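sorry for the late reply, my laptop died twice this morning and i had to redo everyting from scratch. anyway the thing you sent over, i finally got around to it. pasting the sequence first so we're on the same page, its 282 residues, then the predicted structure underneath. double check i copied it right bc i was rushing
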Amino acid sequence: MRKYLLLCITLLTCAIPVNGQASTFPQRIISLGPINTENVYLLGAEDRLVANTSYCVRPEAAKAKTKVGSVMQVSIEKILSLRPDLILATGLTQPQQLNKLRELGLRVEQFPQSSSFAEICTQFRRLGAILGLEQRAEEVIREMEDKVKAISTAAAALPKRKVFLQIGATPLFGAAANSFTHDFIRLSNAINVIGEQQNGTVSYEKILARNPEVIIIAIMGSETGIAGEEKRKWQRFPLHAVNKDQVYIVPPDLVCSPSPATFAEALALVAGLIHPELKAGQ
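ok and here's the structure:
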């Protein structure tokens, strides 16, 4: 095992040739999270992505990549065997595994959870620079900023509605003020019923007291079963959202792990649920 590790480290210290020449930018990338994987594809660098995790399901082609584990736990030995020259970690990557990878001489760039659409774009721009694709990154960001602005401008003319965006069930967890999920509500010209909170943990009693007009459920994990159970739970309460039949389940992979592109896509979805008038006007 020791000889194997030494061999891998030796290989990793060598530049990876491209068309017979050494590249100054990473050519063998391993992504340890869905957002990083999606951003690599969005930059058009998917041919450099040699592996990702079992949670990396967007775009569809990402499912076919070699898997090195889950978001929370990866195989160091599997990673070494793939000879990466860049590992893209997330805020959920275990610190001890990050330290181990760095001790083995691997380049690790960590991208923590973004707190806003602006920060999502900043991190995308940073990845573009790391991969030598700054121009492509700027083009994508400009395009998505235009889409987000168009949705926000259209929603601004509509009445504000009270919204609860649920992203966790045990405990009950929603879109807090310091999260990009809050931006979905804010940019849709709506009122986040827990918008004053810096932490998303909340009680059912508080949500009942705030009486949202729209409830949107985006839960990671076994989405269909848990999300459906949560919807049925809300439907037992005398809420405006229930009376108006405005309790919705949305894809958590889209809403909870956005690249600049999927943020714009998710915003269009959320804004359309909050304001059905937007769909009618399309």
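The longest helix spans residues 134-156.
thats about all i looked at so far, will dig more tmrw
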